[in-house]
Structure to design on (87 residues):
């Protein structure tokens, strides 16, 4: 049986199939929280987060790379941005 968290991730990522991955953000705030954002070329993104287990957002969001960058900075996260190699 699939956990509720994994089912939520599965259901949300169905919307990501066929999208072009533009960049990835990897973020952390101390030992408190880690986040991974998949940012797509159409300006949407998907967030995975957790401490000791993996959780995911309920759906693909309309968050651009700029808005994610701003939010992570405002929330005090240390992050790296990995752009598409040809970007």
């Amino acid at each position: 049986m699939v956990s509720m968290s994994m089912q939520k991730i599965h259901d949300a990522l169905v919307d990501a199939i066929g999208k072009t991955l533009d960049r990835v953000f990897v973020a952390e705030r101390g030992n408190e929280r880690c986040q991974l954002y998949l940012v797509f070329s159409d300006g949407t993104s998907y967030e995975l987060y957790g401490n000791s287990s993996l959780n995911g957002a309920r759906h693909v969001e309309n968050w651009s790379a700029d808005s994610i960058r701003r939010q992570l900075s405002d929330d005090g996260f240390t992050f790296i941005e990995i752009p598409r190699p040809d970007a």
